[in-house]
Amino acid sequence: MTTTWLDEVFGVRKPVIAMLHLSALPGDPGYDTAGGIAAVVDRARAELDALQTGGVDGVMISNEFSLPYLTKTEPITAITMARIIGELLPDLFVPYGVNVLWDGRASIDLAVATGAKFVREIFTGVYASDFGLWDTNVGEVARHRARVGGSAVKLLFNIVPESATYLAARDLASITRTTVFATLPDAICVSGATAGAPTDTEALRVVKSAAGDVPVFVNTGVRAENVATQLCVADGAVVGTYFKADGVFENRADQKRVEELMLAARAFREQLA
User: Using CA atoms, how far apart are residues 1 and 22, in angstroms rounded to an integer?
Assistant: First the structure.
């Protein structure tokens, strides 16, 4: 079997990456000025413990509660995330990535600064979105990654962005093929409409078929009861909402739900051996 970067980074087949959603940060409308950074760190540390003790294969740290999102973030966001990740580093023992929503350059900068192995972002396409007209420049971002010494940082391209519609009249298979050929992703993520929304299994199959040797992740809507079905197609999964208490996006991570999903994921992987 050919070794992939996923094997090298995670050490398991079909890894499950847990989202560690940071509370609103300085500059965000929902920031808790009374609790300050200390409150954000305390919640993040508690959730990290639930995720890692529950058995996830990796963690992706994101500013998920920086609603409404910017497509070009303010410097304070990545700066604060770097400070928080620095405080969490002694407690991190699984591979980790970062995601500064929705800013590819800032995500790469944060990865380089914190030693993260991977980032996930919208790197390609033009979209009509809830955040306005959403344009990207993958060539500029790729060159920025090289300039800041981030060539080893793996780029996970989300080609079905949440809360947005691709402006060109192109089918998903065509988008996947040209993304792989022209923009050199390290992996492709396929999402539903919003965080926690189911990812269409047929869309996942289309992308996997068109992606060639590039790994494909199911990016939203993975649950204990469907993780095996989704991993039959995908090379890995990114899970956020299901790991929260009662499966509610705003809640904190619940170790029992993490264990439940990871038990199902491991049972499926054992069948592949």
Answer: 37
CA dihedral 195, 200, 201, 206 (to 10 degrees): -110
What are the helix (H) ranges across the chain? 5-10, 36-53, 75-88, 104-114, 138-147, 172-183, 201-210, 227-233, 255-272
What is the torsion angle, in degrees rounded to the nearest 10, for the CA atoms of residue 129, residue 131, residue 134 and residue 137?
-140
Cβ pair 103, 72 in contact under 8 A: yes
74-107, pLDDT tens digit by residue? 999 999 999 999 999 999 999 999 999 999 999 9
For residue 184, what are its two tokens? 């050199």
Q: What is the fold, at CATH topology level, of the domain defined by 12-272?
A: TIM Barrel (3.20.20)
DSSP designation for 15: -
Condensed to tens digits (0 to 9), the pLDDT of residues 47-71 reads 999 999 999 999 999 999 999 999 9
Grouping H, G, I as helix, E, B as strand and the rest as coil, residue 224 is coil
Domain ranges of the chain: 12-272
Closest CA to 195 of 105, 92, 89, 62: 62
CA distance 28 to 211: 36
| Helix boundaries (H) for 127-200 | 138-147, 172-183
The per-residue DSSP string of 190-214 comes to E--SSTTPPPPHHHHHHHHHHSTTS
Local structure of residue 69 (DSSP, 8 states): P
